[in-house]
Amino acid sequence: MRGNLVVANWKANPPTLREAKTLFSSLKRSAKSLSRTTLVICPPVAYLAPLALTYRGSDIAFGSQDVSAHAGGAHTGEVTVTMLKSLGAKFSIVGHSERRAIGETNDQIAKKLVQALEKGLGGILCVGERERDSEAHYLEEIRRQITSALLGKSVAQVKRTTIAYEPVWAIGKDADAAISARDLHQMVLFIKKVLTELYPDAAKAVSILYGGSVEAGNAKSLMHESGVSGFLVGHASLSPDSFLPILDAVEGRARLA
Ligand code: PGA
Predict the structure, then answer these.
(1) Which residues surround ligand 1 with Cβ inside 6 Å?
(2) CB-based contacts of 28: which residues, under 8 Å, 6+ apart?
(3) What are phi and psi of 94, to 5 degrees?
(4) Phi and psi for 84 in degrees, rounded to 5?
(5) Closest atom of ligand 1 relative to the 232 alpha carbon
């Protein structure tokens, strides 16, 4: 895997497979020229199979937006790690705030992460506070989310985990509503401290991403002034015009024609 990471979370978009294929193929060419950045696209699971089969061997890695906590069996509607791997997926997002908002608990997230890590999918663990309070209780919320998800995992498993810091208050807005590079830097230091306390031998290997209204206008400063290794991008990943400048910022290059 190349050092920096950009994860495109398409959420429940686009509306049809045809549009998904058009979007994917328009990103494919740009991914080819990346030398420092791994691009992971997480389409809705309904599109994962057709896209992964059509574009097998492209420079873009596939990921899932969620994964089952079960290995298989009588669990209607669940999609397991083994199924995702058989389609060629390499990563799964786990614990996205939009899933936490519909009731996913820290305990379920820990089980999903163990499924992913035990069976060789890279786990992208989302953590983030709903709001910031002046007494910094939100830091404890972040610590709790990381600790409950990682506790009991082996050093090797933790090394295969990526943490995506996604403050809920910054998601789905625009660049002005996102976090400042300075505040993000503070949070990156805090997450590193928590990781070092939990897993001193693995902490350095864990990449930290930021997600929440990353756009062309803030990608460069967030990338270069905060210590993150890349981004988890939602709405701006749905069109090449808004997404490619973010890829360039992470890659550290000027916009190519
Ligand atoms: P956003 O979403 O980029 O649209 O804010 C990020 C996310 O929820 O992963």
Answers:
(1) 9, 166, 171-172, 211-214, 232-236
(2) 55, 58, 59, 60
(3) -135, 135
(4) -65, -40
(5) 9
- State the pTM of this model: 0.96
SS (H, E, C) the chain: CCCEEEEEECCCCCCCHHHHHHHHHHHHHHHHCCCCEEEEEECCHHHHHHHHHHCCCCCCEEEECCCCCCCCCCCCCCCCHHHHHHCCCCEEEECCHHHHCCCCCHHHHHHHHHHHHHCCCEEEEEECCCCCCCCCHHHHHHHHHHHHHHCCCCHHHHHCEEEEECCHHHCCCCHHHCCCHHHHHHHHHHHHHHHHHHCCCCHHHCEEEEECCCCHHHHHHHHHHCCCCEEEECHHHHCHHHHHHHHHHHHCCCCCC
What is the Å distance from ligand 1's center to 172 Cα?
5
pLDDT in tens, 84-108: 999 999 999 999 999 999 999 999 9
- Rounded Cα distance between 146 and 72, Å, is 26
Confirm whether 166 is a catalytic residue: yes
251 is catalytic: no
Backbone angles phi, psi at 237, to 5 degrees: -90, 0
Q: What is the pLDDT of residues 44-79, one digit of tens each?
A: 999 999 999 999 888 999 999 999 999 999 999 999
Beta-bridge partner residues of 211: 232
Q: Measured in angstroms, how far is the CA atom of residue 113 from the centroid of ligand 1?
A: 20
Residue type, 70: H
Find the catalytic residue in 104, 129, 166, 251.
166
